[in-house]
Amino acid sequence: MNETPWLASYPAGVRWDAPIKAVPVQQVLADTVARYPDRPAVDFMGKTLTYRELGALVDRAAKGLQALGVGPGIHVGLFLPNTPHYLVCVFAVLQAGGVVVNYSPLDAAKVLEHKIEDSRTDFLITLDMGTLYPQMAAMLGRTRLRKLIVGNVAEMSGAPEVVAAQMKAKGETVDIPADAYHVRFADLIDNDGRYTPHPIDDPADAIAVLQYTGGTTGLPKGAMLTHGSLTAACEQVVITQFGTPPVLEMGNERTLAVLPPFHIYAFTVNLLLGVRVAAQIVQHVRFDPKAALRDIAEKKLTLFCGVPTMFTALISDAETPNYDLHSLKLCNSGGAPLPVEVGQRFNEVTGTWLAEGWGMTETSPTGTFSPANGKRKPGSCGIPHPGVTIRMLDLDDPSRYVPIGEKGELCIKGPNVMKGYWNKPEATAESMTFDGFFRTGDVGYMDEDGFVYIVDRCKDMLLCSGYNVYPRVLEEAIYQHPAVHEVAVIGVPDPYRGQSPKAFIALKPGAEPFTLEQLQAFLKDKLGKHEMVHGLAFRSALPKTAVGKLSKKDLVDEEARARAEQA
Prior knowledge:
567 residues, alpha/beta, Rossmann fold, 8-stranded mixed sheet, 7-stranded mixed sheet, 16 helices, GMP Synthetase, Chain A, domain 3, 29% helix, single chain
């Protein structure tokens, strides 16, 4: 049996066995600063930083962090949107010798508190935005968090005073106390930048980022992404795009960064890849289709990595025909399955194929790619990246793999795979196969050409707009409602989000039904925005399995039949 059928599908000039060296993440920036010091690095709200200027800011932030006590063994949280602060702080924390912990503004307070304690976050960097700062200010004094470093959007813009006034007038910013718990970002970087380097002996083993990922039970786990796994993932993308002919040109690309940077997909394809190829990174604080269309057309952007909902919004906007989007050379969709029709329509509008890949937090997040030059198959997420081996584990017998063409649990091995779960050796062991492959929880198959198709999930998890949503978390929140006797949450197809959570509820005797809006109001302080329930149905009793467990399969089948009848 051919265990590597994908080799025959590799595009010209791309080698699956290309050498991939593990290096410190901060070395990626240092190399680009040395080679392209005057190349524009960041374009943000009317201001451009060169790579030389970006490198200098990173050095100053690193020295400021060391003055606060950041060094080996110290974990620093980043609670930031797409602004230059994020780029500066990622590299600065690592240069100072610390470990980055990414935090999502979408998380509920309970999850933020858990992540702070579990990850041992002592310092956290955020902005004075009303959507960010209050959440973390509430953690001071109730968690181990020692100090907040607070910046503002205006200080990185081309017109600081104007932007600050506009944001203040709109109520988008809040006042920051002047006390021992707070440090201004401007004060952090007010130094000569002569930080103390901390050499990394083994980049493949040293943790660079703790990236939290949910679980079907309990609270999120921290995936230990090493310097080596992250730079390997970045290099895998670089290798696949420099075939014959090359898709990318070193030092001559312009990328649109609109994905939230705390997401591992954005971290690798926007931040790390952008710096690795010396691209000009055009940052938007949030995704707005019209702003994205305008910048693609006016700034002749060449790279855009996003999630299916973003590409759907771009091709559906009423103003799309007014913009020339043909400067785009490489667009990649990740985070959720890409509808075939969206990819086809995107190609018609831009002249560029929308490539699809598969990966996950634990794989930094590379795994498969769609060849830019060569064979493509609609509905497939592509072939394994360089250095990656994928096999399908028998769903009934985890001691064996199934042959090509048969469905199984997708398992992966490669230099991009995480070191394990932070402080959870049992969970790490459970996630591995008998021969050292990582078990992803995705069910799929590989065809005779090595193309992978994802067809289902082992894990009870939903993908909503590219974010992992775990029904158990939603169910535990809904169970807090005094009228709820039983609840089961499943995912239903959503043309915009991919999937949306729908709750099926059996009420306690005598309890009155409530509306979806009332349920959402009840859950507002218990769930993140990406987790919010979007559908509600009441049942006198929920279906059960033969052993008395709630049967979500019956609910999924019921929903599928209802959709078929409506079609």
